[in-house]
Specification:
Layout (H helix, E strand, L loop, with lengths): L1 E7 L8 E4 L8 E9 L4 H13 L11 H22 L7 E9 L3 E7 L3 E6 L2 E4 L6 H7 L5 H5 L20 E6 L5 E5 L1 H4 L4 H8 L5 H14 L6 E7 L7
Antiparallel strand pairs: 1-10, 2-3, 3-4, 4-5, 5-8, 6-7, 6-9, 9-10
Helix pairs in contact: 1-2, 6-7
Length: 243
Amino acid sequence: MKFAVKTDIGKRVHNEDSYLLSDKSEFPLLFAVADGMGGHAAGSVASSLIVEQLAGFDSKIEPGHELEALREAIENANHSVFRAAEKDRTLRGMGSTLVAALILGKDYIAANVGDSRMYQYHNKTLNTVTTDHSLVEQLVLAGAISKDEARVHPQRNIITRAMGVSPDVDVDLFERLWVPGDILMLCSDGLHGAVEEEDIISVLSSGRSLDSMCDVLTQLALDNGGTDNITVILIRFEEGDAL
């Protein structure tokens, strides 16, 4: 399995995105992107605290209990952010989105809170694995607006669920299969909000290295006028990966 990451401050004063790459060589492997919010750099505190809390989690999982363990780890990370904000007045109101992938071998578990996303690229098609917790996503699901309208909606940045804003959090979990050649993409809304899906497909099918793909995707977001922080992780299932 190969992976790569790229993060860019975009046109913001601070980069409030944080990411986690597993440092293990055997499954399970955990990857995550957290997009902080809160102003005065509090967002970067929230996202980095989440990543710190999740680091090393993939070394502590009991086989057969991966889904429950991931949910508990995310809930604990949420509580840590909430407690930190309670203790420090300058951090009040901070929070973060989160998208994570726990790779188990030929299957994986995706988790998300907020509007950071995970996609699975398979056979030249791009499937959205997670569901945004946002106002515009609710409007799309209700049939009130189209996906194209959601991309330019004036309230597209309003999220309905976030890490750290309350002592408890509702985590969405998805169990999926993948095959050699598939690519998982985890990203903050600074990327998926600025780059069309057909352009993402074009990059992921280009045959470039994963590092180069991350660079191109980030530059596309910048060239398309994206103003937010941009973070993307790409993970590719290689032929011969041990299962």
